Each structure stands twice: as C-alpha cells, then as structure tokens.
Here is the input.
Amino acid sequence: MAKITVDGIIYEVNPQNNLLQECLSHGLDLPYFCWHPCMGSVGACRQCAVKQYRNADDKTGVVVMSCMTPASDGAIISIEDPQAVKMRSNVIESLMISHPHDCPVCEEGGECHLQDMTQMSGHNYRRYDFKKVTHRNQNLGPFINHEMNRCIACYRCVRYYDDYAGGTDLAALGSHHHVYFGRQEEGTLENEFSGNLVEVCPTGVFTDKTFSEHYTRKWDLQTAPSICTGCGAGCNTTPGERYGTLRRIVNRYHHDLNGYFLCDRGRFGYGYNSSDRRITEASIVSVHDDEKGVRKTLTTHDAQRQFDAMTAGDVVGIGSPRASLESNLALRARVGVKNFYAGFSAEQQQCSQAVIAINREQGLHCPDIRTLEQADCVLVVNEDLTNTSPRFALALRQAVRNRASQLAADARIPLWQDAAVRELAQNELSPLFILSPQGTRLDDVATDTFLGTTASQIGLLGEIAAAIAGSGSGLAQQIATALLNAKHPSIVSGISAGSVELIQATANVARALRQRRPDLAAVDICFALPEDNTMGLALLMEEGGGTLEQALQRLASGNADAAIVLENDLTLRATPDAIDAAISGTPTLVVIDQIHNAFNVRARLLLPCTSFAEQNGTLVNYEGRAQSSHQVFPADAALRPGYEWLTPIDPLSSALTTSETILYHSAQTLPAFAGAEKLLPARTGIAALMKSPRQSHRYSGRTAMSANLNVHEKKQTTDRESAMSFSMEGLPLQKDASLLSAAWAPAWNSNQAISKFQDEINGELKQGCKGAHLLQRSLPPQSPVSVSTNNTSNVYFIDHIFGGDELSAMAPAIAARSVGAYLCVGEAEAKRLGLQQHGRAQISSGSYSAELPVLIRQRIAPGAIGIYCGGEINRHAFANGVSISAVAEDGNVLARSHQMFDELVINDSVNHRAMGRG
Amino acid sequence: MIQLIKDTLISQVVTLWRVFVHAFDKTDTVEYPDVQPQMAARWRGRIILSRDPDGEERCVACNLCAVACPVDCIALQKAEDEEGRWYPEFFRINFSRCIMCGFCEEACPTNAIQLTPDFEMAEYVRQDMVWEKEDLLINGTGKYHDYNFYRIAGKKIGGKDKGEARNEAPPVDVRSLLP
Ligand code: SF4
Ligand code: SF4
Ligand code: SF4
Ligand code: SF4
Ligand code: FES
Here is the structure.
C-alpha cells in the first residue's frame, strides 16, 4: 500500500494503479473518456488532467494526465487546482466544437457519459464560431445505430472492438480531425460482442438499434437485477421496461462473471418477450362432439379450475432446463418425486450429471469467467464457445493476452499502460489449443486448432493425458508441455457434443495434470452449459425423478392420466417418433409455456406463463452458482409464473406459493440446494421496513401513462414476493449494490456509475450478491479413468450464437442475423457425395429425412458432417449418422442463406493475426 | 416614545387613507363570462404542441417535458419516420393533474410545448381532461415563430442532409488525406 495526497487528503492506494483509477476508487469525481476499467489507459482524450506537485514545498506543480501517471507512494496531486480545472474545461470545450445539437434526439441522452463529463468539467456555451465537421453514417446491421457526428475521437470503440473483442471490421479511418470510426464498407458489424459498443462508447455514436425502435429514456425504465437467459453462463443483466413491454437489456456488473460485457445474444435476444408468438391466454381444445378439436380461450380462473381437475389423478410432470428452479420445484411438489421427469434429452442429462460429478471432484476447480481470463494456457475441447456460451470466448481472448502481461511485468511496465503493453508483446500470445470438428471463431488467437470428430478428439485427449503423465509426441506433447509449464492452466469444454466419453476424456487431462502439478491448488476445468438453468435442473434430478426417455415411454404406454410439461419444447429433445407416441398415449396433455412452438400446439390445455422479466426466479449457472433473477414489471393478468399455476392443491403445502417460500423450503429440505436461502435478501435493518424501488427517482408520466384508459390512477401493483416495489417509492440503494438494477449516482447518469458501487475499480460490488454456490468439492480426487468410445458417428451438430437458442431466436433482431438449417461438409466429402456449394442435399436416417442447403468449408474435420438444425429439423432424428445424397440443382439458391453463409465462413481463412490495430 | 408613536401611528393612518381612496378606483375584475378578461401572452394556461416554421410537428419526443413535470402528468412515446425524424407516437397530458407550472415549456429544447393564455378548460367529466396529441397539436408556431430545431441539430432528416444544418461543413470524405 502506498499513500497519495489528493487536495490535501491522504488516501491509501495501490501503486500498481494509475492516479485516475485510484481517485475513482476512492469515490472522487474526476472526468475521463478514453480510460476504461477493463482496457487501461492510452492518454488520448486529455480530459483527466490534474495538477501534480513534486513535494510539499512545490507550490507550482505541473498538469499531468491522471490516467497516465502511476499512483506512486507520496504523490501529491490536486483535482481542484484552478489550472487543472481550467485545463479540463478547455479540453471539453475543444472536444465539443463539432458536437451536434442532438441531445434531444440522441438515444444516449440522459445516460450519456459525455453529458456527465461536460457538466463535471464546467463547459456550457459553445464559443467556437466556425463550421462543425460532419460525417455520413453507416448502416451497421440490426443491432447497432451509427451517428458519427457525435464522436469525440476517444478511440474507445476500436480499442474495445478490435483489441479486446477481437473484431476486424471496425477501424479508425481517415485522418486528423476527419477521423472516422466505422467499417471500410457499410455492413453488419460481425463481432459477436458488438453490443458492448453501446456502453463502451461514451457518446451516442453507437446506440442500441433495438432499443431505439421503442425508445425510452433511462430514467423512465423500470428495472430490476436479472440474469441472462441466453446460455448457462449466468451473466448479470438489467432489463428495462416501459408501458408494459420490455425495452432493452444492458450489462449489470458481476465481479466474477460477466464484468462489464455481455454477448449480443444476451443483449439483443430479449425481443421474444413481445413476440407475436407469445402465448397470451389460456386455451383448451374442446372434446365435445359438436366442436371437437376447436381451441377455445379460457379465463385465468377457469383455466386454473380445468387444470386442477385434469391433473388430479396420476400425473406425469416434465421439468425444463429453461424454467426457473422455483417452477421446476413447484412441478415436482405437485406431481410427486416419482412422477417427476427431467426435461433434458437423454444425452444432456447424462452429460450434465457427469459435469456435476467433475464439479464436485477435489483437486479440480470450476473457474468463474474472471478466473478464466487469468489463465495463461487454455485447452478448449470440442465447444465452439463463441456460439454456445459466448462470454467464455470473450474471456479466452483476454486469457491469451496473459503472455503480454507477463512480458510487461518482466519489463516493469504497469498493465494499465495499454498501448505500451501491446507494443511490447506484439504478436506474442499465451498458448490456446482448440479441439473442434470445425474451425471456430477463436482460431485467430489459437496456437493450434485440431480438427477432429468426437472420436478422434477423445483419442487426442487420451494422448495428451498420457503425455502429461510422461510419454507423448507431436501435438499431444506440445499441448501437454504447455499445460505443464503454465502457471495457471485451464481446460474448457461443454456438453454440446452430447458425449459423456468426451467429458470424461477431458476431465482425464485435468486429472493427469493434477497428478503432475502438486503445486497447483486445483486444476481449473469447466463445462459450458446450454440453457440458463441446465445446472439447476440437473441438481434437482439428483434428488430423485426419472429421465425424459422414461417419461415418454410411460406416456406412450398409457400409464398416466395426464402429463404436465413445463416450459419445454420436447420436439427439440427426443426423436419425432418418441414424441408422437407419447402424445398419442397421453389422455390429457397440459403445457405451460411462453411461446407457441411445435410441441405446445398439440397440448389439450395450454397455460400462458410469464417470461424471465415478468417473474422472480432462481437460475443455477455452469459453476453451480445460484442467482436470483428479479421480476422487472408486472405481467399481463392472464400470464402467471409456472410456479403459480402449479401451486399445490394440497392445502398443507399451500404456503409454497411465492418464489421466496419455494426456494426457502427447498433449501431446507433438499440437500442439493442447501445454502440457496442465502439468495433471499436480508429482512433486517432498513430493508425490512422499506422496499427498494424499481423505478428511478425521476420516473415520469405516472399520472398520464394510463390516463387514456382511466383518469383515476390505479394503485401501484404491490410486489408480494420480493424486496423490490413496482414504483419509485422506497429506499434507493445508492451505494449498496445488493439489489442494484440500473446503476446511477449523482452526476453519473451512464452505466459508468457502476464505479460508485464497487469497493474499488474492477472490484467487488459493495454489499453485492454474487450468488450462492451449491456445489461443494465433496468427492475424492480421481485418477484418470479409462474411456472407451464406440461413438463412430461422423455427424456433429453446429451451434450458432444467433438463432441457436430457442427463445432468443424469436427476437426480430436476432432472427435478422440467423440462418436456417444447413449441412456442412469438407471439400473432399463434397466431391465424394457430388455436393455443390450452396446447392441442396437430402439427408436421411432411418425413417427421417430432410433437404438442406449445403455449405462446403475448408476448415472441417476430415470426413465429418456438420448439421445445423436452426429450429427446423430434429437433432435426435439424425444423431446416429446420416446418409446424404445431392439434390438436383434448380438454381433456386436461398438468397438469405447465401449471404449469411459468406459471414459464417469468415473463420475459414483466418490467419494468426496480430493483436492490436494494424 | 413620541418618535415611536409618530412612526407607527402615521403609517397606520396613511394605510387607512390609501385603502379608502381605492374605493374610487377603476375595478380590475370583469363580469366574466359576459366580459372577457385581457390575458397577458405569457399567462400559463392550456398547453399546446406547436409546429415549426416548415409546418412540421416540433416535438421530437425527447421526454424532457415529461421528466420536468412535477406532477408527472405528461406521457409520450418516441417514434421515428423512415428518414430519421423523431416524433411522438402518442403524447398525452392529464390536465386534471396539471398545475400549469410551465416547467415543461422551460424544459422543451424545441419550443414545441407552450402554455397559452386560454384558461377555459373546465369539464364535467374528469376523463375529458385527458388530452391526446390530436387535441394538443396546433397548426402554427405559437409564441415562438422562428425556431426550427432540426435545422440546427446534426441528425439527418427528410429534406435536410448531413452538413446542411446551421453552421455545418459538408460531410467529410473519409478517403481524403487533405487537411
Ligand atoms: S452524445 Fe451525449 S452529448 Fe452528444 S448529443 Fe448524444 S446525449 Fe447529447
Ligand atoms: S465512436 Fe465513440 S468510442 Fe469511438 S472514438 Fe468516437 S466517441 Fe470514442
Ligand atoms: S454468454 Fe450466455 S449468459 Fe452471458 S450474455 Fe451471452 S448468452 Fe447471456
Ligand atoms: S420537451 Fe418538447 S420536444 Fe421534448 S417531448 Fe416535450 S414537447 Fe416534445
Ligand atoms: S482518460 Fe486520461 S487522457 Fe483520456
């Protein structure tokens, strides 16, 4: 610890940091633009000027850039010195000379870092009388708006997009005061993390296009802390609502997980909430003779009555990995453990069980995303992370830079000296090895990518484990050596291959490494999971219950009076024949869901349920970290959370009606969820007396928004479930982040206000809730187990960030970037089968067949056949190998796919590119 | 003592005299509604939405009036035409809540929302005091005749390209290296 003096007050600081960061850490207001907590300093904007004195006798001092000056022991600075103040106001004035008169029509207005800093620096009137520089905008695709006039040339966008996120299609173009931040040619921003530009750019140059379509100022959004439903990573989000519809999602800082950044699926995938495919009312298919087969709407009351009557007997309940823990628990309580079945496909269930066992094994450790960023050697097995759990991929892009950090430490360059560190490291990257059936988006920073089918990956993993133990050669030896030499090796995989053998073979590498590296407290290994609550459901299944296969068999054989399927499109989880047989054997099929899909149209009784933003719920991420997702706004009266529909009929357990009581009860009674009650906000102190408001203190229009319907304002909906209120009344958590939704602090209206809630910059949130870890290392360490595979299928299934997830695929912006199902083969394979690029092929397996457009790729495992289902074809029908034949060309190529294909194969031609701009 | 009596007593007597003299003044009150009072132009009465000198809706749906309103009686929603112009999809004032404080007019960056001298807004049914954009929008510029926000703002709209706003240079050619 060092001490510095700021305006006469002594602060304890970390000398590894710069002055700006330390001033902000101590809650001082010092304006800045180009510095970013995650990207360090480059000294480009000159906004953070302070006065520094040589010693106590020095009364003159010099103006320095605080972001470029180390917080060295004994430093004496002044923020309030008149010369420094003047300098800052001159700088902001010059940054604003060409700024358009746009605030009223700027999406950034009201949460604009430039507005905040302009106020803070004291610039009011434009004195510059010459002409303003103007720019033409580009159409950057369905996610991002571009309004270049508003740029202040801080370079944050390119530093984020190119240097941090690995994008290649955004650059600083032009020269001098004509510098332009955009693409060489108008077109969609390709990077999967482009949405973060909205928050990274301190001005309104890059704004959220989906938000702009139903724009609302930040102060008018009703918000609550929420969890992303896009995948199993558990990123924290802040969704915002106005007039009853969800308007946008922004990042919510979580120290261990997403930090400051989300992926584009998480940010732009919310659109399904107001999709016209939402189920908005309960309906039942009539069985009366006169109107047989007609679907009729029901009132909520009638629906509940029908539901209770239909499900009084012997009922099968099928849970869901995308429903909250509470809804799954309520279903389980309603039907009883012996009638409760997992809503996973067979492979998903086996794989997630294997993952849980590995997450419990001593000697191994499941890294959170921040820990992954610190890995200095990474082995990725099979998972195309950018397309399955995208935030992991962004973390791995930082991990490969640990070589640069190392070099900088050796050269005694502080890490925040971003440009210097990059200049020093040039192209040197920490080792990253990828095993995959096809080229991935991370190949550009990978040391090597091994292209192989599941079976050959298992083979290579065996060789790596052997090489770690002592005998190996070639690539296996290279990977083994890198893992053995690393300070902080990490292994990342997932369950998308659906192969338990692959998971075991991956774990074997970690186990072998643990045996050779007693210096490591534990070896980091983690598995990305597809849906937001895959881990939660897998843990619940440990407490009893059957598999989906058993459920479908039982239904097919007519051994149940009814079936309740919770938020689950079962057609995605089993073969069409198995589903058909189960449905025809079920006298009464009840489905509770949010969106109309191929499965729930066949339900007798269909009950509409709330989306993540309309209900409270607990989701368990890939680490076994349970997190609360809070209701953002009251749903339409016809919609109810799954757990409310499922309220037990039995009066004894009828106390279990709110999400909190269900969670508390299960934490008490089910060992797998012991400790989950820690998620419930403390009912002590002030929080016990006052709720925390979901609406900002400047929420507007309260006496007019519903006045067209009735001039007498309704009472605000009371939230009987959580510690938050649906109004602006209550105790705003000004520095306490336990229920932090939209970050705001006096003078800090943008999301950068988050620094006021951190215990230090990039630190933990004050009083923040990081979730409750449900998995303990309770199993003894294991030696590598023998893995034999009889999996010889050359078929693998492709994932896509856009369209690959059932719910977000319904969001219009995501749909605009999705492709339909296609078949992917290598050149040799295409020649053998007579397939043409963008032609069509017939695939068949047993009684199933489908016709798909063909994509021929260079970077694909020899002999492998990739299928992307795109919500159109059933994965399970083709999992055991397919036969392929070309379909005669009719010249009718899918135009949309054609263009998208071009985008998909970007990584066919990757070079190991230089880090940094160039 | 004498001084004190002088000061206070004289002041009392003078005041009484002045009040008495007022009894012969011309009256300020008028026989409303038979006689209409003369309202100053700056009187804060019925709120209108005005149009810019080009005849287009002035309001850009920035929400500043709504947030400035102390009784929260303004609600609106932003929409955008194909050429980039922001306008309110709906704009609602609940006059049964409005206190005619004029903060909205103060806040409005486009001079769209203005208070007028009209005060005759009483209704028998409270619901009728909820006014929508169609009721609020007038066919003129109101009190401020010249201001045209979009001619100053940098955003491109139909009929005004980049570089055509006040004090703007033509858009730069990014490919040129000339100063
Ligand atoms: S970027 Fe900020 S300062 Fe500039 S027009 Fe937008 S809101 Fe106003
Ligand atoms: S576009 Fe935004 S982030 Fe990029 S330089 Fe301009 S102001 Fe900075
Ligand atoms: S990585 Fe997963 S959890 Fe995180 S934002 Fe993306 S989709 Fe959501
Ligand atoms: S302040 Fe003016 S421009 Fe903005 S929404 Fe209100 S009336 Fe429209
Ligand atoms: S923040 Fe220090 S120069 Fe930009």
Notes: Residues A 20, 32-35, 41, 43-48, 65, 67 surround FE2/S2 (inorganic) cluster (ligand 5) (CB under 6 Å). The mean pLDDT of chain A is 91.
